[in-house]
Design a protein that fits this description.
Helix content is 31%, strand content 30%. The chain is built from three helices and five strands; from the N terminus they run H-E-H-E-H-E-E-E. Strands 1-2-5-4-3 form a five-stranded mixed sheet. Strand 4 and strand 5 form a beta hairpin. The mean pLDDT is 96.
């Protein structure tokens, strides 16, 4: 079951990605995407970028993830293809830009 905080985080991520012209589509993935999550699940978002724009998009969000939410920790993994973020309220989300 998705919590109110998770729903808000999903909405915040969606709003930012919808405005980014480099983003063609985004999907809720992981346990929440399968409707198998719980209050401890992170929000996993798989992001499809326009051809040749994944690296640029990753760099943009990696440099300023506060466009989506404040963070106390952000890890850029796999050459920036995955941004792993923890918010001040200990919510967690991953943006995967394959």
């Amino acid at each position: 079951m998705t919590t109110a905080a998770q729903k808000k985080l999903i909405g915040d991520i969606s709003c930012v990605l919808k405005e980014d012209k480099r983003i063609e589509a985004a999907w809720l993935a992981g346990s929440l995407g399968r409707a198998a999550g719980d209050a401890f699940s992170d929000v996993d978002v798989l992001v499809l970028c326009a051809e040749g724009k994944a690296s640029e998009s990753s760099s943009t969000y990696g440099a300023d993830i506060t466009q989506i939410n404040k963070s106390i920790l952000m890890n850029s993994l796999f050459g920036g293809r995955v941004l792993n973020v923890v918010t001040p309220h200990r919510e967690r989300f991953d943006l995967t830009l394959p």
